[in-house]
TrEMBL record:
<dbReference type="InterPro" id="IPR003779">
    <property type="entry name" value="CMD-like"/>
</dbReference>
<dbReference type="Pfam" id="PF02627">
    <property type="entry name" value="CMD"/>
</dbReference>
<dbReference type="InterPro" id="IPR052512">
    <property type="entry name" value="4CMD/NDH-1_regulator"/>
</dbReference>
<protein>
    <submittedName>
        <fullName>Carboxymuconolactone decarboxylase family protein</fullName>
    </submittedName>
</protein>
<dbReference type="InterPro" id="IPR029032">
    <property type="entry name" value="AhpD-like"/>
</dbReference>
<feature type="domain" description="Carboxymuconolactone decarboxylase-like">
    <location>
        <begin position="36"/>
        <end position="118"/>
    </location>
</feature>
Length: 124
């Protein structure tokens, strides 16, 4: 494991998800799940999110679209929250999900809108 890449990953993960979320994830990590959390931190957050080729806002748009299309509601909820932190508006989240509905199918789009409504609150 690259210590620099891991530390970069922790930093970015905290900036995007917040200390409370990251602390909860890390506190819930046991000996069995430690390797996958290390992998996520080092490679997803440190290597990929740390690359200069796309800004965080763009990475959030991509993740929202991919996770909605793959029907991954728990991860989608987290990345919608992160997308808001990274500068996305509610309207932009809505546009992402409309595009998913057309390209990945209405069931995926409808399920993603349900997740987004829960994340965005009652006034969504």
């Amino acid at each position: 494991m690259s210590t620099d890449r891991y530390e970069t990953g922790v930093k970015i993960r905290r900036e995007v998800n917040g200390d409370e979320v990251v602390d909860r994830i890390l506190n819930d990590t046991d000996e069995f799940s430690r390797p996958i959390q290390d992998l996520v931190t080092e490679y997803c957050w440190g290597e990929i999110w740390g690359r200069p080729g796309l800004d965080r806002r763009s990475r959030s748009i991509l993740n929202i679209g991919m996770l909605a299309a793959m029907d991954r509601p728990d991860a989608l909820a987290g990345h919608i929250r992160s997308g808001l932190v990274n500068g996305l508006t509610r309207e932009e989240v809505q546009e992402c999900l409309l595009q998913v509905a057309v390209y990945a199918g209405m069931p995926a789009g409808l399920a993603a809108f349900k997740v987004a409504r829960e994340v965005l609150g009652d006034d969504s």
